[in-house]
Amino acid sequence: MRLRNSKWTTKLSAMVRYELLWNLRKKKFLGMLIVAFALTTLSLAGGHIVSAITGEPVQANPDFVLNANVGLGGFGFFLFAVVTAMNSISAEFESGTIVPLLAKPISRTIVFFGKLVAAFITLLATYCFLTVYMVIGGSIVYGPQNNLYLAPLSLLGSMVSTLVWISIVFLFGTISKSSLIAALGALGVWFSTNIIGSILGVLAGQGWILTYIPGSGTTGTVEGLPSVGMQVLTGTDNIGPNLIQYILHPLWEITYYKLKIGGNGPGSIQWIKLYSEPLSTVILTSILVALTYFITLIAISWYSLRRTQVTA
Considering the domain boundaries, does residue 253 fall inside one? Predict the structure, then answer.
């Protein structure tokens, strides 16, 4: 039994090493670091950009780092998922290297999970860099930061949020064998859930549906109407900030509203309260939804690769 486990782990580590070296040769990891640095720098410089336009001085913000979601947010998570995973499987078919790869004494399961682990390591290294950069940069630009001991929660939440999108990219890439379709298919999912879904949620009052699909989720508020209260996004993209807010404010209640236009005459706008729930419920739901999608989509992708016919 020990011998079998040793061989299995040796093959898996070899596959992970192969994928990481491939990423280094193709400069994928370097490209991710450059993009991460650029996006985070833009996030840090946002206050100064606004100050230059409006003439207002940059205000100290002691909560900037913990609220910044490692400087990326929803679209950033999606973008990094695409860059990390869109050609992990499909590129092997497009270039024909899948034939010699599968000719080696390793199973398709090891190939698949080796690539998945390599994507996880690449993403983790990038987000660790972003977290350190955000802590240092945020302290310099916006002054001393509060509760920096909670920064690892932002890192953890960002990883979980991005892994959901990685599972979607893996699914499209494994089934289609095309990197382009993997990227465009994931983009279609992101656009549907975050743009169209958000509009329908606010106007139709069915935003609860967004809680059960990947993305930013629906918008709730704490202590006040959406126009004046603190807003909380309930989706899988906001797990990190919500975890931090729960540690700091465990008794928060999140309230949801529906926007009604013209209810009291032409042009009038009215917010109608729908329901409320504890922040703990929001966090638990988003984590369970993220894990469900990740496990389900990865399982489908793995099964698809195992059933794929490969010819020389």
Answer: no
E-strand spans in the chain?
219-222, 230-233, 253-261, 269-278
Give tens-digit pLDDT for 164-189. 999 999 999 898 888 888 888 888 88
- Residues 89-114 have a mean pLDDT of 82
- Phi and psi dihedrals of 220, rounded to 5? -115, 170
Q: How many CA atoms lie within 13 A of 198 on its CB side?
A: 14
> Residue 174 and residue 101: Cα distance in Å, rounded?
15
Which pTM value belongs to this model?
A: 0.85
Number of domains comprising the chain: 1
Residue 258 placed within a domain:
no
Phi and psi torsions of 73, nearest 5°: 85, -175
The verdict on residue 213 lying in a domain is: no
**What's residue 290's pLDDT?**
93
